[in-house]
Design a protein that fits this description.
2 domains, 3-stranded mixed sheet, alpha+beta, Macrolide_Exporter_MacB, 15 strands, about 425 residues, elongated
């Protein structure tokens, strides 16, 4: 240990004789390590954000959603129908519940776009007719009051639960609990307000990204009676009518192992009755698996790109050490003449290389941890997460590259002939 300590002090002294050169050499490693940590942090943050949004849909859930058919599919007997009738029917709901044995819970949903009013305040939001299980399925938390109950649904109550943004917009100065909001031509008593909730991820299929903060939740039976199944829209002098019984059914199975075997059974329960493809299925578990694979590939690609900068830093270290060997040829000859062995010379130059790469690694780790936080501060929508693995990986690679690229200069110094080294001017 004493010999290593002396070699370390001698190495530091030699490097400090050329501060600018050593500093510039260290910078290559600093930026390389910082790039590895920062890029992996951004990749990890983005992938975690996407995965959390998908997990919010429920890994054991299967979502069946009504989808407006294409223009070709809308035609009936060669002519388009005046009332577009599509989507999930109550018969589909009953058939699925009765024939799929792995279902543990089922959640029917009817969604209607409506203007929500309270005196002079109004908001264009989403009216959701549903049951008491909606809060559990969608992971909604109650801020004040309560959520809908089974009794509300059975008694066709005119009760409403407001989402966070809806409550703030309609009741900027009041507590909404016990007060009323107007949906269409009817008034609904507010019984609860939910906390703010992050939007769910959209998919390229039937499931769009959902903003839960502009919703109003009412009992499904009340929605069925008050709004009916037909929705008429007047646009630019023309009338469009649509008829939909249920917008979505969310099914929960017992475990993730039951998800994939359940999918074909559910399809067999509704597909024969929907030849126009007006019902589509989304399986969050499959989305989650695909997103995890994409995240791993993304991390590998970004890590590889960042590691190239570390490689450039290693080449810089080799270059500076080769120059150092040439400059210190006479010193090497004197040490060999005084009894130093080849392994001592190799050790000496390797220690100097490790000092360079180690200092660069420590500074790079510090910078690599700071940069993601700066990015998140200036770009709030961007997510970043520094993992201990990325820090250890980047530092280990920097030291490893330092040793790897320092071996050749150290070996070249050790193999010098002492007599020729002493003659060097």
């Amino acid at each position: 240990m004493g010999r290593i300590w002396r070699a370390l002090r001698l190495g530091m002294k030699s490097l400090l004789l050329h501060k600018l050169r050593s500093g510039l050499t260290v910078l290559g490693t600093v930026f390389g390590v910082a790039a590895v940590i920062s890029m992996l942090a951004i990749a990890e943050g983005s992938s975690r954000d996407a995965l959390e949004r998908i997990r919010a849909l429920g890994a054991t859930n299967i979502i069946i959603r009504s989808v407006k058919p294409s223009d070709e599919a809308q035609a009936t007997g060669g002519r388009p129908s005046r009332i577009l009738n599509y989507g999930i029917k109550y018969n589909d709901y009953d058939r699925i519940v009765e024939t799929v044995p792995t279902i543990r819970k089922v959640l029917p949903i009817r969604e209607i776009r409506k203007q929500i009013r309270r005196y002079q305040y109004f908001l264009d939001g989403r009216v959701v007719g549903t049951t008491e299980d909606y809060a559990d399925f969608s992971m909604l938390e109650i801020d004040r009051g309560r959520f809908l109950t089974a009794a509300d649904n059975e008694r066709f109550q005119n009760y409403a639960v407001l989402a966070a943004t809806t409550a703030k917009t309609l009741f900027p100065y009041e507590d909404p609990i016990g007060l009323s909001v107007k949906l269409g031509s009817d008034y609904y008593t507010v019984v609860g307000v939910t906390k703010e909730r992050q939007s769910t991820a959209g998919t390229s299929g039937s499931l769009a990204a959902q903003d839960f903060n502009k919703d109003v939740y009412i009992p499904l039976n009340t929605c069925k009676v008050r709004f009916g199944e037909k929705i008429v829209n007047n646009r630019s002098g023309s009338m469009e009518a649509e008829e939909t019984q249920l917008s979505q059914i969310t099914l929960k199975v017992g475990s993730t192992d039951e998800v994939r075997p359940t999918v074909p059974i559910i399809k067999a329960a509704y597909e024969p009755w929907h030849p126009r493809k007006d019902v589509e299925m989304t399986v969050p578990y499959d989305l989650l698996v695909a997103a995890q694979q994409t995240a791993r590939q993304f991390n590998i690609i970004l890590g590889t790109i960042a590691a190239i900068s570390l490689l450039v830093g290693g080449i810089g270290i080799m270059n500076i050490m080769l120059a150092t060997v040439t400059e210190r040829t006479r010193e090497i000859g004197i040490r060999r003449a005084l009894g130093a062995k080849r392994k001592d010379i190799t050790q000496q130059f390797l220690i100097e290389t490790v000092v360079l790469s180690g200092v660069g690694g420590v500074l790079g780790v510090t910078l690599g941890i700071v940069i993601p936080y700066m990015i998140v501060y200036f770009i709030p929508d961007q997510k970043a997460f520094v993992t201990p693995f990325s820090v250890i990986l980047a530092f280990s690679i920097s030291v490893g590259i330092g040793i790897l690229f320092g071996l050749y200069p150290a070996r070249r110094a050790a193999m010098m002939d002492p007599i020729e080294a002493l003659r060097h001017e």
